[in-house]
Queue: 2 jobs
Job 1
Amino acid sequence: MSTSFTLHSGLSKHARAIACVLVFVLALTPVAGGVGNAYADVRKADIVMGETVDARGLAVAQCPNIDAERAIVVDTNGTVYFERNADDAACIASVTKIMTGVVALDAVASGLTSLDSTITVSADAAAVGESSAGLQEGDTMTLKTALYALLVPSGNDAAIAIAESVGAALRSSGTASGDSDVKAFVAQMNATAQKLGCTNTVYENPHGLDFDQYDGKLHSTAADLAKVVAYAMTNQTFRSVVGGGSTTITVKRGGSSADVFLETTDGFFDINDDAIGVKTGYTEKAGASFAGAVNKDGQELYAIVLGSTSESQRFFDADELVEWTFEHRKSYQLANCDQNTQMNGASVPLVAQVAHDDWIDRTVPATFSDPQCAVEVFDLNGNVSQTVEFNELHGSVKAGQVVGTVTFKQRNQVIATQDLVACKDVPAPNFFESIGIAFDRFMRGFSGEDKTATSQLLNTTPLIVDKTASTQ
């Protein structure tokens, strides 16, 4: 049994959300003569922040529960929070069209074409079949309009039309070569994949069909696709096209204007309020796949799921990945002290007492250069530790002077450093004080007493509280 859905864009947001929940429940419910097709699970070999679930000793409740065979979730910095078979090659169906859009927009950025250039739908483009934007032979439109036809309803017709037009520009400029405009365009897709650091990706057409005359070696990985999506989302035109849902475009048809309604294939918008795209894919060989993006309070994540058990499940898998990631990203305050002191008339945390080496018993009160600094941590990655290096202090010390450095690590990776700065002026001993100190140190040499004060780090690193840790 295969469960898929399309929600009419005329429904209210509330109604669509309820419909999605009902579909999800039905997908998980056993049916007469068989079992439901969604088998979301947690695997010991799943990888969380570079280590397997098994190695970290994580409970099931602490891990994302998805059924996609291959998956990854990353942020804009390339931090990988979760992986499942992310480097395994697989067919990607119409997720291919992300790269189609990228190559077209790169050609615009290079001046080889423009968003206003004319795209003409050839007989080959109109006849490609399967997922279609409803374009007809002879239709003309701008490249920007064609990108909507490509990415919103996943139009194979638009993919060929764009590849023919942009491919011709790539060939004439010598940017790419091939026996045809489409082959030159595909060559540029592969070249761009290599430029982005994709290590196991091959494109053979601009639409992602993988059967009959299109059967071949077309494939990619979740890890590679995450790089492609991250790059694509740096382009504002791409973001606007994939982030708007269903729409209507206008094309020139038979000498007059014709409106063409484009219904989005992206059901992610219906279950995640922070969704901003990106692209669906489905063939029998690839299964249900999706590359999704969310932006929550300025924090952006990309979730790639390949081989979910149904076209609806892929959206729930992506939602599970991003919401799990947000749940475990925490703000961690670096200054954690029981005492405060004054610095330039303001109360600041007393982070350390740093020995002044010219005195026997005098220290310099210190705080962080940024006493309010906090860093984002991923709580499942372990607790935070700190190490300190104190400077040797001689002569007069002025408020604000750097007197040491504290380094913070999580899982042996540096996550932050803070300079220790003096909170007040501490003068050097005068001539007569220096004589007394020298004599005192001479006498301490016989008694074994300390000749200088001891530096102390007063800051602590509280344990990261994981609210799911006790849940089994």
Job 2
Amino acid sequence: MTGQVRGVQLARLLGQWHALPGRRRSPDYAALAGAVRGLLADGRLPLGVRLPAERELAEALRISRTTVTAAYRHLRETGHLASRRGAGSWTMLPGNHRVASTGLWTPLDDQDMIDLGAAAPAAPPQLLDAARAAAEDLPRYLGGAGYHPTGIIELREAVADGYTARGLPTSADQIMVTSGTQHALDLVLRLALAPGGSVLVESPTYPNALAALAGRRARITTHGLAADGWDSDLLLGGLRQTRPKLAYLIPEFQNPTGHLMPAALRERVVAAAHAVGTDLVVDESFVDLPLDGTEVPPPVGVYDRHSRVISIGGMSKPYWGGLRIGWVRASAPQVQRLAAVRVGVDMASPVLDQLVAVHLLAHADAIVTDRRVTLAAQRDALLGALAQRLPDWRVTVPRGGVTLWAELDGPVSSALARAAEEVGVRLAPGPRFGLDGTLERFLRLPFTLPAADLVEAVGRIAAVRYDLDRTGRQRWREPTVIA
């Protein structure tokens, strides 16, 4: 078991649970059960957690206990809830579900789904040649044990050269290769954050970062991003007032908003972090993907003089998510401490994957240039479809990255995601990117799929969005008891 959720907590997560897809004359108990299933599917409600008692949830939602009883019964029938008399009810998933590439639980028969939950592109055509070249290089390593806790030297040098070219002199001793950016974040948190430690994050932010912080039982405070990005006074004031142990920031084409932090604010953030004793974990996953000729400011680490900045990055976004290669850039002593922590986790990254990464980075200019051209065209196709089919939605055009952050015409993000699932479109609703069920007016839309798929997806989304408001919600009465 992972614990228990209280009635007020579940009510906050459920949000606008009455906003059912299409208002298809479903009774309230079905609406409530569908909302709980949605929370389970996108990970906001963990598996194995004990739900509140029927009376407690009814009071928190201000509905009848009969409705909650019927919803729980429906969830048991669909395999989403297990109950034992006198002990309570626990969340579960039926056996025909699996974990998708987005980390969401999905049915096994969803092969035709247009997946807008994952913000990652397909592999570049150069990957096969890189894999063949890596296989030819592999014999040089077969005589050893194959464990390289900080990574093979060729890859560490290639990554270090990339930082140096961006204006941040870096040696191979300052690089640690990891099994993806998320793994890099996990190792940094294990080293730098004690359980229950305080962390400042942006809001909205990357959902898997929030999951990693929850795993450390971190005390999270947030800095809310405005339509045009960071409010410098609020961000710096938040650092000075809360004095967190860590701050997690995504300065380049922030996920999910696409904002780019200006150079002046980067310098001020580093100075403020040093003054209050905060370590900055800077996620650079999208730094290689500026669009429209956007100039990217110097790395945050350029302004660091006291080893307060730990940068993490990887190959998932500019190259391919299936190549699980990430890295940490920190001081050489910090890298050695991270390696010591890593030995208790996974020892080292696969040598063959690292060799593939070396060959891809050797052709980075061509690969990334092609990627930017493709992404810009797909972004424009998505923007055009939204302007035509959903003109009331407000979207700031990102200057890089792979996602749009759309402000909807109502707090219906979760309900819209449930409706879109029924017509073959998977969405990541706004609350996944925040805390406690907030951000229901927002939706992240990646533009990593082909333009035709994006246009088709927007058409389906527009249809179900229209259905949400087409008819008034049916008034259902409780059954009359005749004694």
